[in-house]
């Protein structure tokens, strides 16, 4: 919603009616009073056991204080009843207004993407516009809403967040000034890069501005979280949701990851003879570990050694997994059952996906690179069919061999290994596992591998 200054602030549905707000206030006050009464009675009982002539003044003053508290608690109890009476009257007289006196907005029965999508489909155009206007940040985060709806809302949030933080900008350089904290600088630079990404052509990004969408923007806390889509997600035959790994922030990785994902999409278009057949999403929707290893002094010797950094902590993956699972479910809701949905993760991002897929059945396949573990030892626990997990491991990459999170992923039965090296290759009848490069042969010299991408040119094997 917008403040009087025009700044967008988070105010997620359900947007509460006045009667509901009064009933909630009465219930919360009643709960507090019960706890206060119980605590007060403990005080009274303790005082009753301490009444002696030696401490007569304490006993008298304590008795007076207890009686006053009794009266106050009784009066507060009457307030609960008065609030409930007001709630009943408000429901009868004006039950369709909120706390600001505006008509109550419709809201979905839950945050589940399928229910959000069904709720949105049942709204009138006027109600949709009102929801976007008054609940803009929530709309931009709501899995299950159409891509263009979220994009429209998130662009509004983007411009409002830059304006809200404009006091941190140097007016001449348009860079964060020195008084800003490091976290403020990173997030502000990230917001500025997002604005550029959705208004200008960026070197190495082959997808034009018109075909880019800001699928997620969450600026409520550090670090800034976002997700961008390249291509028409809702019309594509193949969708890839990619999760980057440690050290990822919007400021540091937006342009690099978008270039990589453009290359992936371009290659998929070459394979299918249709550049529009694949859409890709870069998901920066979690607090990624900020370092892989750090130097620390060894005792009092002054000698510094490398020790594992934040990337060895599974907490970041466990915090990310529920949000990532709901994102995947939301994408599946939008694209339907026939679209090929591939989850892709690099390093720590792959571990996040391993957890997310244990509570989501949305993905058809999983592609990981440099993965330190998937929190799983079999495909079934990640709701994957046999032959639908691919992994790339570089020869010198020890991360994938550490098995920090649930064991070595290369030992999972049914996993398919692919080369991490780019090279000139041929492919099986227009398909390639998880859109990744690998050495191959012609379709006449060897049987085709399991399907990983739908092709309009030729049916998948």
From TrEMBL:
InterPro entries referenced in this protein's UniProt entry, alphabetically: AB_hydrolase_fold, DUF1023
Ranges of compositional bias, category Low complexity: 437-446
Organism domain of life: Bacteria
Annotated region described as Disordered, given as residue ranges: 437-461
Residues covered by the DUF1023 domain: 225-400
Pfam families associated with the record: Abhydrolase_8
Protein name: DUF1023 domain-containing protein
Lineage: Bacteria, Bacillati, Actinomycetota, Actinomycetes, Micrococcales
């Amino acid at each position: 919603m917008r403040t009087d200054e025009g700044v967008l602030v988070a105010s997620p549905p359900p947007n509460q009616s006045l009667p509901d707000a009064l009933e909630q206030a009465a219930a919360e006050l009643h709960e507090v009073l019960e706890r206060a009464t119980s605590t007060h009675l403990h005080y009274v009982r303790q005082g009753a056991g301490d009444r002696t002539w030696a401490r007569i003044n304490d006993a008298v003053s304590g008795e007076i204080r207890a009686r006053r508290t009794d009266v106050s608690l009784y009066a507060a109890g009457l307030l609960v009843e008065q609030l409930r009476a007001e709630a009943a009257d408000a429901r009868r007289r004006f039950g369709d207004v909120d706390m600001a006196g505006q008509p109550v907005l419709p809201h979905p029965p839950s945050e589940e993407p399928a229910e959000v999508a069904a709720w949105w489909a049942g709204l009138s155009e006027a109600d949709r516009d009102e929801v976007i206007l008054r609940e803009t940040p929530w709309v931009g985060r709501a899995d299950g809403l159409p891509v263009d709806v979220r994009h429209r809302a998130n662009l509004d949030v983007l411009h409002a967040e830059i304006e809200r933080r404009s006091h941190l900008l140097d007016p001449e350089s348009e860079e964060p000034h020195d008084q800003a904290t490091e976290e403020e600088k990173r997030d502000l630079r990230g917001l500025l890069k997002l604005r550029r990404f959705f208004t200008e052509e960026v070197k190495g990004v082959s997808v034009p501005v018109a075909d880019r969408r800001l699928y997620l923007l969450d600026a409520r806390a550090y670090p800034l979280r976002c997700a961008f889509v390249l291509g028409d997600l809702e019309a594509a035959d193949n969708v890839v949701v990619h999760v980057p790994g440690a050290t990822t922030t919007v400021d540091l990785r937006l342009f690099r990851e978008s270039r990589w994902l453009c290359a992936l999409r371009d290659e998929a278009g070459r394979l299918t003879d249709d550049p529009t057949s694949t859409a890709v999403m870069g998901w920066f929707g979690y607090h990624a570990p900020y370092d892989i290893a750090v130097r620390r002094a060894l005792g009092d010797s002054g000698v510094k050694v490398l020790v594992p950094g934040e990337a060895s902590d599974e907490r970041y993956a466990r915090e990310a997994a529920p949000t990532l699972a709901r994102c995947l479910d939301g994408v599946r809701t939008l694209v339907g059952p026939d679209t090929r949905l591939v989850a892709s993760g690099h390093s720590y991002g792959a571990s996040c996906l391993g957890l997310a897929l244990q509570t989501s059945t949305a993905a058809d396949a999983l592609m990981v690179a440099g993965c330190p573990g998937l929190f799983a030892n079999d495909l079934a626990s990640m709701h994957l069919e046999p032959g639908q997990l691919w992994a790339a491991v570089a020869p010198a990459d020890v991360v994938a061999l550490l098995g920090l999170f649930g064991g070595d992923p290369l030992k999972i039965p049914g996993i398919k290994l692919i080369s991490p090296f780019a090279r000139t290759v041929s492919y099986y009848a227009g398909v390639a596992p998880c859109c990744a490069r690998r050495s191959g042969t012609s379709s006449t010299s060897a049987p085709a591998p399991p399907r990983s991408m739908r092709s309009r040119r030729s049916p998948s094997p």
